[in-house]
Amino acid sequence: MNAADWILPGVYLFVLCAVALPLGRYMALVLSGRPHRGSRLQRSIETKIAKLCGFDPNDDMTWPRYAGCVLVFSIICLAVVFGLLNLQGSLPWNARGFESLSWHLSFNTAVSFVTNTNWQAYSGESTMSALSQALGLTVQNFLSAAVGIAVMMALIRGLVGRLQVEGGRLPSTTQSEVFGSNHPATHLGSFWLDLTRSTVFVLLPLSILLAIALVTQGVVQTFREQTTVKLVEPVTGPDGTTIEDQHLPLGMAASQVAIKQLGTNGGGFFGVNSAHPFENPTALSNFLQLLAILLIPAALCETFGILVGDVWQGRTLLGAMLIIFVPCVVAAEWAEHAGVSQVLAQASGGDLSDVDNLEGKELRLGTSSSVLWAVATTAASNGSVNCMHDSLTPLAGLVPMWLMQCGEVVFGGVGCGLYGMIVFAIVTVFIAGLMVGRTPEYLGRKIEAREMKLAALVILIPSILVLMGTAVAVMRTEGTSVVSNPGPHAFSQILYAFSSAGNNNGSAFAGLSVNSPFYNVLLGLAMLISRFGLIVPVLALAGAMSKKPVVPRTTGTLPTNGPLFAVLLAGIVVLVGALTFVPALVLGPVADHLEFIAQK
Amino acid sequence: MKTLVVAVRTFLFFTVLTGIVYPMMITGIAQTLFPFQANGSIAQRDGVAVGSELLGQSFRNPRYFQSRPSATASFPGNAMAGSGSNLALTNPAWAELVRHRASELRQVQENDVAAIPVDLLTASASGLDPHISKRAAMFQATRVASARGMSLERVTALIDTLVEPGRMELGTIDRVNVLRLNLAMDAEEKTSVSK
Prior knowledge:
The structure holds two protein chains of two kinds. In chain A, strand 1 (226-236) and strand 2 form a beta hairpin. Chain A is built from 21 helices and four strands. Chain A has a two-stranded antiparallel ribbon. A two-stranded antiparallel ribbon of chain A has the order 3-4. By secondary structure, chain A is mainly alpha-helical. Chain B is mostly helical. Chain B folds into two domains: 1-39, no CATH class; 41-194, no CATH class. Chain B is 49% helix and 8% strand. Chain B contains six helices and four strands, in the order H-H-E-E-H-E-H-H-E-H. Chain B has helices spanning 2-33, 35-38, 92-108, 134-148, 152-162, 178-194, and strands at 42-45, 48-52, 131-133, 175-177. In chain B, the strands form two sheets. In chain B, strands 1-2 form a two-stranded antiparallel ribbon.
């Protein structure tokens, strides 16, 4: 590969940081309720919504109540989406007359969209009515993302106290002791208010801007569900008939694609996701969507720093993410550009330097941007794709798989990526504390046995889901009979599926035919557990931390801002990810790579 | 119980806001300001819609430039079933497919011995890639010219006018929209006949 191939990743990272920092500052203001120029307007909108929905905006919930609200709300979302899909055939706004989805596909899809995974065992243009897409799926694209941000806000309040978050006071010991978490009236805030703020003031405005930008590029946005054209050259259909008229799928795609990217959802309007020319028509639409994938997760780091009273706390987390992200981009770009397929080279008969692996890629998007997308979408728990990951060179396919297995904390999902990373930060101060024999503390509060148990749960649950799920699937014929490739790559397909579902990512090695009761139920359970099995311990952790006294900083305190901690944190994430998954990766992509380079 | 009531009301409120108001608003803006793009960038010939400028179609006739191979179900370029092959580079079936495409192309091209551009050997991600590389167009130019009885110069000149330049920093290469190219070829031939 040549120097020009590095320009895109470089420009991308620069623009990302340049946009994320101001956005992070904006989010800090609107999510915390701190005074700003638009406070009055924000307050009056919030009060109206609160009245309409019947909640008290000044409510202050304990962690069990907060968790209870998250669960009750999510169960309602699940039930409604399941119902919409399972009864689709008898509901209106279904111009193409699609049938109702099977119970297992309805279950899988409902779980998938409510958990911010957006794993898709179906193809939008041949399965979903306009009603299901708009009222079922678009709504969940917003709400699942908003729930992630809400839980993150609750954790931040638990870590530094609600007054610090709302007041913007500098963390001084005396103030925290007097007003801070010891104060009986401060808990984790109101879930309903957090949900409202993240949807109305963050996700919705950004989505409107992005959706309109995407329409200018050619992403379709119409009430019609299809149109018909007369083909220039008729084609022969499967049964020998001549097809002269071809239907083209339409729909309200731009509005859904915008929030799909901004909310780290990733569920495509069309089956091939952002590889579809109607979903991602130009290089510019591609760049905007790529930016939207990491925008909010990156910006939330800055938000975190501002809310805890020290921006470098947040930038350190962002730094740790970049320490892992950048080498992954370099490795994947290198693997894809350098991994020349001998099969292609011989068939083409050309010069080796001209042979790019274009299987599963779109020409208007190009190889570099496809690989950058693959890394970004799995670093964040987005999961949208603009090339087919199944057809990447084996090592370039390994990178996205491993990024998911790291627990979706390198950017991760909106909100959930950051709360995952904070849990890793707690584990890091604990390990560092063990090394020097001091009780670890984070943001001035001691980390003790209960917090460590909760943190360990958050890290262990996804790993167990990925490895056990894969193990179960490879032992059963329902699991192994639906792969589209032989050999180690078949194992990669299954491992990828569970890495994706078990970490709420949603991308796939799409050759695996997963629309069966076996996979729909198993992957559905994995998504469900990895979402709510993590949210509950994270909120419990927030509750536990909020009750702790603030200890004064001493010279023995490990600073959690600065390059040293960023490197330590990145090291812990890599170590946990590597130790847990290297054996499985050797059986899949690494073995696949050895076959690939041995090809003649 | 109160939580349940609040949850239901909040859910309903946001369903209306994000599931009805938001998409309707975007549709209204899109249909007013950008009706061509919002309705699928439909290409017309003599007032008849013949496809979308954004979606590839399958061309087999030697008079037309071929699109990239497509892995869509039922028939290549099926717009209602966009799909990649999802074949691994280590899959023998994929190798077989690539070799088969190469030998087919060599047959159609007759005595053309130039290297085959890889985009003509590999299926796109969507199966609906509207583009081929400029090299792939030039590669097919001789065949199309002779099938239409036009001079090679006129065909290559037409390709040149339609090239969408690649941007190195975006990792894209010079490419041509196949539907637009083939429509332009038909128009070009028509004008020369009428002359």
